[in-house]
Structures are given as structure tokens and as C-alpha cells.
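INFO batch 0412 | record 1 of 1 | parsing
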Amino acid sequence: MNGTQYNPEALAFVIMPFKTQFDDFYSDVIVPGLREAGYRVERAENVLEAAEALHSTIRHMQRATLVVADLTLPTAFVMYQLGLAQGMLKSIVLITRRADNLPPDLRTYEVLEYSTHYKKVDEFRRQLSAIAQAQQTSAEAYNNPVAVLAARKPAPTPSAAPKSPKKEPRHITRTAQMTPTPDPTPERLPVIKPLSEPKQHKNGTQEAAKAESTAPTRQTDQVEAVGSQPDAPSGDKASAKEMPHIYGLALESRQAMDRIGTCARRINELTTRFDRRSSDTIEQITALKAQGDAKADDLMMLLSTTSASLDDYAETVEGEIPTLHISWERLQKNTSDLIATARIETSEDREAATLFVRQLEMLQSNVAHTISSVQRLRETIGQTPSEDKQTKRAIASTNQTIEILIGELTRVQAYLVQFLGELGDRMGSADMPSPPGTN
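INFO prediction complete | emitting C-alpha cells
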């Protein structure tokens, strides 16, 4: 628990929808974060098997010292439980995937925005744990508007003697025996917004380019980097060590090619799976819409799940774009100078060049296939019914990410085509010897 003392009396009650897509986030992120702060953790789903489900839920909430409410999908039961928590004057932590989808009156309170992306869940868990731990020693109800109103004392009647002015507390004291903190006004926590991946992409690219420009050039016994020797001789005066062979070209480029290929394969597999799921989801949404009000709740749930899936896909792809861009820049750097000076003089050189061409052609095919998959997904997403604001926002955000991704993949594809053409011209030069056995 990172040094936090476990308090057996501290119970955190979690409010969230009864849907399986929330289970992993509850068990893997919310529960560990609250336990780190010293709480036992329960949620409504854990007590719904009791004969009197509602009474059991109320009893658990009565014992809770902290309530965490996930408003990503504000179903009727979720909002009912939130009202109970406010009426019981509990400290409340509001969490959601998208704060801009909350009702306007709830946006005025402290809200932690979370993401299920693997790079961001740890930061959310730390934020949740910090807030929960602070409530262990606070004598005031946190983030509860009803508690604020309950703490206000009524104005004196005209017949009553006026009393000396006294500072009005903002929050109600939960336990009389607890000592108030020096500052009764909790510091307002900002809404946690998702990190801007394109910005990281840009910065990451600049840092990688800077590191690449300052890194020492790799050398082998057979290959010496172009420009590493001042006043290098040219033409007939150049020695073998000063003019790289074609297999040096492959050696310097292999790492960047491998990274591009791996990145493209991951994107292609992710996109293909998501495209299939999206097609199935569109059919389900269409069927629910045809049934009208009878399936309105199910339709709302499915649209919310669709929005969350779109967000997850976009965030995962955004994490791949910087790697793709940096690897493309490294491929350019490793090949642009060498292609102008690499020698293909012997049959071994020609065989190495032929093998390198095959590898480049396979990479080009891999990238082209990935572009096609992403374009198909874009068409599928365009057919997704956008019945609510949340779905419209998720579709627009995902389409923006897809456009950036297609731009990067197309840039790589164009360079590979150009590079293959230049390499083919070198291999077809008349001054190069033919392979053994040819005339």
C-alpha cells in the first residue's frame, strides 16, 4: 500500500453500471487504487444477489466512508445511487471517460477523467488513490453539494439576538471526533484530460531526430559511413573502404525496416479485428433502433460501448504513429546518402542487392495492405449510426486519427516506391557485371 496504513473501518463503495466492459477497469484499476489508500472496496454488483437488493445496497452505502461514482454511462440506477450518496452526505469522487458528456450541473464539480489505454491507467490510479487517501484524514464531506447546503446555518429570526459573525463552513463534518484539517477548503483538482498523442508524436520525432543527428555512425570492417572522412577521394582514386558495398546499405537500413514492418503489422491486425467488430455492432444498433422505445436502454448502452471502443482504437493507433514516423526518418537517413555511392561491382554485390530488393518489396506490400485495412475501417466507421453526442464525438476523433495514420503510411509507401526505383536503376547500370552464368 505504499506506506498507507490499512483502516478496517474505511469502506469505499463504487457506483457503476452492471456491464462486463466495466469489470476489468474496476478490478484492475479502481480496486488497487483504493486499496493503496487503505480502503476496503465494494460495489453494487457484489450485493445484488441478496433477497432485498435495494436495501442491501443502501446498507452498504451507509457504512461507506467514500463513494466513487463512474458516470461514463449514467443509467437510471447509477444516478439513483449517486443521489443516495449525496443525501447520506458521503464524500464522493466522480469519474468518467469523457467529462464533456456529463450533464452541465455535474461538470461544475471535481471530476476525474480516465482512459483505458495502458499508458494512462497508472496515472489515473495514482490520482484516485491520492484523493481517497486525503479523505481518510478529512473531517469534511468531499465533492458533495448536499453536504454543503446542510452545513449552512439558517439566518437568525428578527427576534433572536444577533450573533458575532462566524466563518461559514463549506462542508459538513462527517464524524465529530475527527480533527479538522488546517485548511478546510480542499484544493480543487483539475479534470484529467487525455494526453495529446499527436503532440507527443511531434516532440518525439524532434527528439529522435536530434538523437539521430548526434549519434555516432555505425561502422564495420566492410562499410565506412559516407562523410566520416574529410576530403574523401572520389572516382578512380576512391579506395574500397571509402565506398560502401550494397550490403552495407541493407545493414544500415534493416533496423528501421524491421520497425516499420512490425508497426504496420500491429496496426493491420488491430484494424482488421476492430473492423469486424464494428460491422457487427452496426447491425446490432440497426436492429435495436427498429424495435423503438422497447430497446431504448439497450441502444444507449450499445452506443456508449461503441464510443468507448472507438476511443480505445484511436488511442492505441496514436501510440504507434510516433514509432512509424521515427523509423521512416531513420530509413531515409540511412539510405539517401548511401544509394548515391554504394558499389555493385561483383556477383556477390548483385546477389546482396537482389535480396535487399525482395525485402523492400515485402515491406512495401505490408504497408500497402495496412493502408487498405485502415481505409476499409474508415468506410465502416462512416456507416456507424451517430444517435448521440458521445458517439458523434468518438467518430470524429477516430476519423481524425485515421487521417493522420493514413498520411504517415502513405508517406512511407511513396518513399519505398521511390527508393526501389533508384535501387533498380543502380542494379541495371551497364557498368555492373552480370551474375555468373549470364552473357
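INFO post-check: The mean pLDDT is 74.
INFO record closed
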